[in-house]
Amino acid sequence: xxxxxxxxxxxxxxxxxxxxxAPSGQADILAxxxxxxxxxxTAAEQPVPLRPNGNTTITFETTEARTLVAVTYxxxxxxxxxxxxxxxxxxxxxxTIDGIETNPQTGGQESALCSEQSPGQGMGAHxxxxxxxxRGAGTxxxxxxxxxxxxxxxxxxxxxxxxxxx
Length: 166
Hints:
This protein is mainly β. The protein has a single domain (about 25-165), classed as Jelly Rolls. It has 1 helix and 10 strands, in the order αββββββββββ. The protein has one helix at about 1-20; strands at about 30-40, 45, 55-60, 65-80, 90-95, 100, 110-115, 120-135, 140-150, 150-165. Strands 2, 3, 5, 6, 7 and 9 form a 6-stranded antiparallel sheet that branches. Strands 1-10-4-8 form a 4-stranded antiparallel sheet, with no helix packed on it. Strand 5 and strand 6 (about 100) form a beta hairpin. The protein starts with a helix and ends with a strand. Mean pLDDT is about 85; it is low at about 1-20.
């Protein structure tokens, strides 16, 4: 009986907190961009368009120093792979805020937006999430760069979007 009374009290406290306007844990959207064209990916890292006009950067504002920011990049990713020795080919992306690479940083399989074993090709909708604490308040700039690596010899991104939240 005591457990039922305790649960009822907890539910009542939760309902009161919601009614009183307690924060719900919701993130604010700081910026959003999308690009519907085809983005060719090469063996040299290059910035990718983040806006319909082809801009390769997107900006957002923070009002406080040391603000945790989350970035989600989505795209349909295509990779073609071939090697006489087999192996994995990847399309990797790198996300930076104010020129500093976000976490997790690139460097291994975990940073591949898409990958395929040689010989072959693969295509699918994928996303990458990253986070970083921005040091100061003010305007910040995000850039996404792409490259194909290892046994890949062709890559592309389609219908991409980026969401920046705190």
